[in-house]
Write the structure tokens for this entry.
Amino acid sequence: MTHATLKFGDKEIELPMMSPTAGPDVIDIQKLYAQGGVFTFDPGFTSTASCESNITFIDGDKGELLYRGYPIDQLAEKSHFLEVCYLLLYGELPTSEQLSDFVPRVTRHTMLHEQMAYFYRGFRRDAPPMAVVCGVMGALSSFYHDSTDITDPEQREIASIRMIAKIPTITAWAYKYSVGQPFVYPKNELDYTSNFLNMCFSVPAEDYVVDPILSRAMDRIFTLHADHEQNASTSTVRLAGSSGANPFACIAAGVACLWGPAHGGANEAALNMLREIGTVDRIPEYIARAKDKNDPFRLMGFGHRVYKNFDPRAKVMKESADEVLGLLGIENNPTLQVALELERIALNDPYFIERKLYPNVDFYSGIILDAMGFPSSMFTPIFALARTVGWIAQWKEMISDPTQKIGRPRQLYTGATNRDYVDVENR
Ligand code: SDX
């Protein structure tokens, strides 16, 4: 093992270095405070590894995303979402027997406790679906007491399968509630993604046949969003889990964090931005605003903390957008035309080139979801649906790590130092 030597003041500290299977070496600073009496400072975790993991790897310079070592473009083309769920949860692609066992285990848990339907009715009809999904996910812990003991591997497994199985029903019902239509129950004869589309778009008044093209596109969107290293919402799930909180509460915390427009909320914000731009001739005005330091406006769906080259998911999503809109007969979709032209202009503009800003996963996803008939308020809930398996895989990895302890960051304190209380008459 190699070491890094840190010299400051009269101190010289040897810090062990750890070598990954991929990515940069890591300096282990766990003993830094004990040996040197100092903290490190990295508020946005731009240079800090919060954990050891073997689930997902991103090479931001190469534009590479691997789930358990498999490139995302191969999985998007050749696999399907439930197989990707198995891969993320258990580390290997399933044999046909393993898959034949896994799929029905998920299918059998797609229904919600009937009493949960009443829980939805406590929300205003105009509640953002993300508020509903966040609330209902947390509420699962009040219905499924038999799978909240995190020290029991069996209960952890049941809770994991339950959340993966129920999140499509939870999400579809949040949509149905927002549009005032009756809830549609899961159908076990449908595959995972077709079941979700059926619960979203079928109505009692007429039969609904899931379009296999839309189901395939939706399934690919789920795969592209399934996991992404230690992003903000995954780090939230890990931190919540480190306190021993029940799995449903931890995933609800992930949903809450994903909601932000800088994170999973960007897909809704990106489509709203493209619609606000409206026509190609207005793009320069918005490019100028994105570059203006005095204007808080940013190109939504652009830029990424890790990808400093293209986001491989955006590449697949862009191909999928072309295919789906073409098959739906709306290839000259004005929003897509604005997106394509905005990308072309931005990628030739020095501001974006210097800062290595490229379209991310959220830039094209909204265009596809909009074409499928989803309102933009459903875009982030769909992201949360897909990311639930990634959050669970990361949570399971953290919980089963024998060295794991409660996460408790320190701080750089710059507030008032010790001072005595002053009575109000003397202030
Ligand atoms: C997701 O972490 C993940 O893995 C997340 C995710 C996942 O799968 O979990 O990939 C999902 O969250 C994708 C990102 C979705 N967010 C957006 O599309 C919102 C718009 N993007 C930005 O807010 C921003 O790019 C972030 C938040 C994504 C990344 O921000 P960073 O890494 O903190 O970068 P930064 O804010 O320090 O920006 C660096 C420079 C700044 O300019 P300077 O101060 O150097 O002059 O780039 C500029 C920023 O102003 N910049 C942008 C910009 N993004 C960054 N300028 C205009 N438009 C943008 N979108």
About this structure: The two ends are 59 Å apart (CA to CA).
